[in-house]
Amino acid sequence: MSAASSPRVGSVDPTKRGPPWYALRGGDGTSTPPAYAADPKYKKYTQQVEKCLNSFESVHEWADFIAFLKQLLKTLQSYQQFKEIPRKVVVSKRLAQCLNPALPNGVHQRALDVYSHVFAVLGSEGLQRDLALWSSGLFPFFEYASTAVKPTVLNLFDTNYLPLQAGLRPVMKAFILALLPGLEEETGEYFDKVLGLLDRLAGTISQSFFFQNIWLVMLTTPPARGTALTYLAKRLPPFKADEDITPIVGDDIGLMIRAFSAALEDDDLLVRRAALDILLQSLHIDGIAVKKAQEDDRAILMRAATSVVLRRDLALNRRLYAWLLGPSESNTAQVEYYKTHSLGLLSSTLRNEMFYPSQEYSQSRPFKIFISLLDKYEIGLPLTETLVYDALKSLRALLQSGTDAGDDLSMTGSTLYEAVEPHALWSRLLSVVLSDITSGQANGEGCTMVQYLLQRFHAHDEEIETIHLPVVFSAITSVITTHARDDASSFPAALNALPLLRDILEKIPQGALKSRPVLPGQAQSSQADEDAIVFAYRFYGITLQPPSVNARHSDIPFAVAFEDVVSLSSAAAKALLDGPADPSLARSQRDVLLLSLSLLDMLLSRQEDEGDVIFSVNWDPTGWLSTLLACLAQTNVAFVTVDRFITVATKIHGRTTLQPGFKLDQRVYMVPMINVLLKYLRPSYSAYHMRAVNLIWSLERLSRQPHVEAVISQSLSATQPTELQDACEAFGVLWRLTEDSTLPGVHLKVPMMTLLETLRSDDPKLRRIGETWMRCSLKSYLRVLDPILFDLFDPTIRYSPSTTELRGKQLQGFVYDRPFDQRYVNYLLETLLSVVKFGGQGFSKIARSTPISRSLYGTLLQRLQDVSATFPDATYMDIIVSQLLIRLLQSEPKPSLLPIMQPFHIVAQNLSVDLLQALVARGEVDSITLQSLESVVIQKLFFCVHTGRLDLQNKLLHLLHSVITASISEGRVAAQVERGADGISLQDSPIPRRESHAVHPLLVQTLVDGISTPSNRPLLQHWLDFIMMTVPQFKETLRAVVTPLSDCVCRQLRLALGEILEASAEGSHSDDIVSYTTDADFLMLLTTLERLTLLSMTRVAGEQPQEEDQSADRTAQESSGLLGYVSNVFSSEGTTNANEDPSLTRSSDHRCLHNAVRVLYAMWDKLNIPQDGRWGSQEESLVLIYGRAKTRTKRVLEHLFRAHSSEVLEAVVDCWHDQVLTRPDSVETSTAYDLVDVLTTSAQNAVHMLCESISCRTPGLSERTKKTTALADLSDMTLFDFLEQYMKRLEGPLALQVWNRFLQLAKDLLVSLREFRPQAFAALKCFTVLADKVSQTTALDDRRLRKDLQETYGKLLDICVLSGRAVESGSWIRRSQREALAANGRESPSPTLRAPETKVDEKNASSVSLPLPEGAKSSYGGDVTQQVNVYIASDALPSLRKFLVDSDKILAACNQIVYNIVNPALKGKARPLDLEEDVVAIIREMAKISVAVKAWRTPVAESLNDNRCFNSTAEAGEQWMPMIKSFFDTDRTALPELLGKITTAPSANIFTNREYEMLLRSLNLRRLSYVILSAEKNHFLAHLPSIQEKLVDTLRNVSAPIVQSEVYLCVRVLLCRLSPHNLSSFWPVILTELYRIFEQILDNVPGDGSEELGLILSACKLLDLLLVLQTEEFQIHQWIFITDTVDAVYRPDDWFPEALLDRLAEVVGALPAGENTVPRSAAQALTPSVPSKHMRRPILHSLRQIDSVRDLVPFFSSASITSYESVYHSGGLVDWQAVERGLLEDLFEGR
């Protein structure tokens, strides 16, 4: 029958069609056609065919196949009168199986003979009707057919298929796939024959339809691309540029482009080469097809084409270059063609890929393509000019985003930077930078981009550093200077460029700034008056108009740059002087001034490197200095700018190599600079003090004139108190930070004496200023004493001895014999008295220890000898007290001289408070007066503190100290009188102890307020001195005073620490940092804290019972003399056994120590000097503060540790615990470990002390140690945690040293434990860490050590695995965590009441019945059992093989774990796999231990074989997959045993429940699917024949839908876990069964709720997966189920669906709607859409069950178009994660 007479397959009206091909038989092809229903011969014919088919079951070897085929052919030939094949579905399946490539040629030939006879019987119409049946075996066979049978196959195609003509439309793609393997060898025997068949096939429908199917083949089938390209090379005509190619290749140009893109990205080099050849032949880049294609399609083609350069194949690159450059042979024409047609698309494609990298490729891919294209100069140079900046910009963004491919990107970036031609690169970069500057962009990215390149990618490159960088540097400098001079608003842009100039200058080598480079093509460099920017434009060939600039007098780059930078700094300074209103602009101007000065500093340093070369610069030094000095006088200029200017000015001073220069040592220049520096010596600028002092002395060294002394003296002559205070503070900082070797007393004598005048001023404010200076800034009293003593020992002063009565006492004194210079002596006396008064212990120490002979003033020594005021070895104290002060205090003028010497008496009145203090200190004031005076002084102090009056506080504090001291001294004398001669006090005496001084109610509060009030900061040292001198004199009331004072000092230290940390914070500080805290503040606060802490602990040390007299009263035992009391302060460590009564007192005393250690620990942790030098100008001061404060902190901690070792160590551990709770990431980086190493002499001592602390807290161990708990709130669990982290830091030898001590602790703990307690878990963790360290040393060779390790580790592990049973209090059924939460009704554990904490043991007990201590680590308050299980999985099990070498011990430990943890967790589980994650992790880790297989195999097997196994969740099933795989790997009989359970024969037991039997079969099949899915790909390949046999047997013999559904699920798993070619023999069965199921639906649609619906859904899911995977074997068959040609999208007018799913969509969609609509979830799941990530995913992935076949209508109707679009968009990418997730959900949730 001809094609014209054959029935139309695609008629428009389906009602006019004959019955479809599937309507002629039943669902399995067994029913008789209506025409032969009454014919007995046909019935016999059918019986003969069935008999023949049944004989196939007994086929075992290839000869049996031939016999079967002979019999079948004979049977068919016997009934040729019938034009129908009975049982044709089964016949087609058997014929397809006979064409298996593994069978010999004879079988193939016999099968083809049968095919030939069948086709002759059916004719064209019958073949058209049953095309799907007979083609499914014939199409895939041609590729594997031998040479002998290929002619037969081709003849069948030629004589039977090609006559179908238009009827081949639905099978077109499959037919092409079947024929293309014949084109593999162009010289082959059948090449021309196949080529002719393809040509004729192309003419059956249309050439465009044929080519569109070729595109689909290339896109979806990689193995067929080579042969498809071979055909295209023969038949695709060359196209002209303006020729419309759509009539030939089809309307969908995008499909063609994607096909070529897939070929260009193929792994086969020959395929890529052939694709490029066709591009050159037929698809020119200037052609109308490429131009009219969508932008995305054009980008896809260019992306694929350029990817060939990554193969580094010259042949590929040559073809790509030819495609990009065009067909012309002329170089000029090629470049023009490239720029016109290719460059735009190429650059845009690479740019988009750079900025928006695809997940399919490496992020470095476009950059590597760019680098490779640079090899072709004609392509690389224009591409560089267009793309290089964007490439570097995107590269920077990717690197800064912190992607995983950072190393690859960094290496690629370096390669790109080196590969790009430097001239083109820097031309582009300069253009971008200049564009940012000229446009005024404050945040232009050009400058930051160039900075990034220089810092990240630039290596040493002579051409760049000697040619391009100097040109770019000069050009940028010239432009920003010109803009800043002409436009005041351009400073933000200049600010953006100045850091770049700094980086460029750092890269320019020495000598590169001496001359300009020679322009290309010219002999000389440039004209002398040509500006740098004009030269740069000429050098780089930039065609833009350069900005207007001034002519230059020199072409030397250094001179030009120096002029520009000087001009820029002058412009910024002038702009600041004009005072703009915009604060942001002013900030920019200040920053520009700073950076320009820094750049000028670098230029001057560079000039020093040039040697003696003289540079002539066109600048005005005087004008520049005047402008800058005027600007520096403003208050809005930061110190960094002042620092930089003075540094630059001192470098230029006197330099002869720079002409013209200037001399800086003139008063007009020096005065402004010194005044500015003095401003930065004020307290609010403590961060800059050190640098400012160094700058002042550098200016002092410039000149021989005393400019500094004169300026400071002038500043100290200010009349306003505020100005004077600022000047004194500044001078004090200068004085204090100046070294003695500089001799400040010599150089600054006038300002020193001027400052000391404030001490005797009548103005209290001025007097306070002087006192503060004396206390905080004096540094050395010798600087002041020498000049004062020299003038006081004037030989003209004469006096004689006399006797004077004072307050009823006779005092020896002196009288002056004659008048002398009273005013000057008065001046010197008051100065000296002030120095002595405020010197305190420091003055006494220096004066007492320094011999007068060490004085630097020789004339002073000579004068002392002249007046006989000195003697051998005399010290300063001897001279002052013996020879000066005593005589002066005792001297009085004669009555006749009194009117003349009146000024001396006025001074005496002003010193009345000091005289009173001296009297009180000697104990000459009675107790009543002392009490009154004490009250008045305290009240006055309290008033002064809270009113901010600072002037009287110092004297009042000294007086108060004297009063308290005198009172206690008097009380001690009285107590001694009351005692008997034997020293024992009367027990019955009611008289209170008088040596106990009562504390004034207001004293403590006054002291606390005096320290903590911010306004009292200048007097902080005085208050702290008072506390340290006075508080130790309290005895009975010591705790009431020390505790609040200690807390207050701790607070002040924290505030000071916070302030100094804020001052040292990172960031650019263009504004000054305000910071008052200095190193002196830390030192005095730390000294006070140390003294107070030791005092607080003396009560514990002093409460020991007197062993000599047990019956004595406790008050008598506590009494001791002052010497004994003070000695206890510095004792090493008192005995810690305290009585029961003072427990609360001891706790309070320990709290003081604890708080002190907390503060000290915070300082130790924070005060670390960074190594990167990021502090800038404040670095010198901060380094000084950090260093001294931390050193003092260390000394205080060491002193406290020596006195109270265990208390300090426990307090450090508690601080560490709080730190870890606040910042868990600091558990490994905490400084506590280093601190413990500093305090303890060795790691062994540290571990010993920690073990002792643990022992005294652990129940059962506390009675074994004599040590008591020092810090009650610290739990043993916290100590265990710290010990664990501390031991992690130990090296092997150190770990060996501490081994014995911790081993003893572990053994003691094991002896005391009878059931699990958290201490055992903590000990196990510590022991694991320590054992791991020890096992890395050779010490493990010791048998005894190894035995101890194994026994102790095993016992600890055995106890820990009992944790679950301990928690349950005897119940062996463990409730899961979720069940426990549900019972409590909330997520947090139910609260428990804390037991009364009356004893230390009870407080730290961690047993089953008591809650954990509140001080314990928070993690122990939760599920301890879960923590133990997690630790066993993560650490204990991996360590078993290392510690327990013996296999029996490992197995025993694992058995214990399984018995106590795993088995209870599995008991009574409704969902056996839904275990806690920690238990699953234990089984997973145990499965990695080969010797433990006997322990874990049983629970895994029982869980898998549990019929409720698949009631679990998919997440649980995924967690168990590694264990399932290990189980079947270790037990080789497990899989055959599982396969043996899959039986198909019905049970012989008549009482068997058939439904239950089918359920068991389905469960076993599902177990098989789960086992296969648990392994990796091809893992069970050896068992595939057995698996296939079971599946085929089940399909053939078990008809229950529930069982067959599991078979399709298993096939889906096999598709994902086996390579596609391994399933080739399985395809006939799969296709036939799918075909049968869908055919049955067409014949008889199942009703709603039918049991067949589950089977239909499983079959649809299998087909859905096949469409997603698009395997090569299935593509040749998929036309049976879906429309796989372009007809799926572009349907012709007369199109009618032929694919099964399209037919099902019509048939099922035409059914009336049921009562229940489609569930919303199903409707959403079936919505056809292209995945957002362009990856193929199953459509039915979220559909679990259906209630009606109508629920599948969306799948039936959208499968074809969704498959086409996914192929079109995905590029072959499969979302494997979604596929495997769907399989797991079907296994566990598809119930």
TrEMBL record:
One Pfam family from the record: Dopey_N
A GO-annotated cellular component: trans-Golgi network
Keywords linked to the UniProt accession: Golgi apparatus, Membrane, Protein transport, Transport
Membrane topology: Peripheral membrane protein
Residues covered by the DOP1 N-terminal domain: 39-328
Biological processes per GO annotation: Golgi to endosome transport; protein transport
Domain DOP1-like middle TPR: 337-523
Stated name of the protein: Protein dopey
Organism listed in the record: Trametes pubescens
